[in-house]
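User: quick one, sequence for these tokens?
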């Protein structure tokens, strides 16, 4: 259930700091609030001119803040039900993208620095959602679950570095889908049961990989 969004508004203001040594660009998020690109991640990663496996390794090593800690930081900023967290590289900078359904079934997108655990910014997602993504239904299913997104990340950590935790996207919300990266850059997908917290391999994903 990956609900990644992009900032679609234009530049609202540009401020030059000092003698042109730094530039802060303010843009507006989906909720209309100002968001400054000065709040950028402290973690840089090399993602150009390297193999996919090496890129995976670089990102996994750059995530000093674990998935469960990034989720905890996002929930401290915006209380609610965590739907997922993904480690993403944006222009060579690494960020944890965390989705939280807050009060009033509002879907919040929160960015957390994987080096410091600091919340970099957030915005409310106002896109129209289909029936499978209805925030009230998803929040209800996850709120009653014994295994939270944080629990799922901890459970799968024995399989490798967790780089993604998301509620399954088939509308049933029965398991957490977790992606891990091993020391050699190999990525694998796992299911973590919402009730028992048991970790099993995502066989559908494994079959797809075998077919490639």
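Assistant:
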């Amino acid at each position: 259930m990956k609900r990644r969004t992009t900032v679609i508004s234009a530049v609202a203001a540009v401020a030059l700091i000092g003698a042109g040594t730094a530039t802060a660009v303010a843009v507006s998020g989906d909720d209309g609030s100002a968001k400054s690109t000065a709040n950028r991640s402290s973690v840089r990663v090399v993602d150009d001119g390297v193999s996919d496996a090496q890129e995976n390794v670089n990102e996994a090593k750059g995530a000093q803040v674990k998935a469960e800690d990034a989720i905890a930081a996002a929930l401290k900023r915006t209380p609610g039900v965590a739907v997922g967290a993904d480690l993403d590289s944006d222009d060579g900078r690494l960020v944890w993208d965390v989705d939280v359904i807050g009060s009033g079934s509002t879907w919040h997108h929160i960015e957390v620095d994987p080096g410091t655990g600091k919340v970099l910014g957030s915005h409310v997602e106002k896109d129209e959602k289909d029936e499978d993504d209805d925030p009230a239904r998803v929040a209800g299913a996850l709120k009653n679950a014994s295994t939270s997104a944080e629990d799922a990340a901890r459970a799968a950590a024995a399989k490798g570095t967790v780089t993604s935790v998301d509620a399954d996207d088939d509308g049933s919300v029965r398991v957490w889908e977790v992606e891990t990266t091993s020391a050699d850059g190999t990525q694998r997908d796992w299911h973590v049961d919402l009730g028992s917290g048991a970790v099993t391999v995502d066989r559908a994903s494994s079959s797809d990989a075998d077919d490639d």
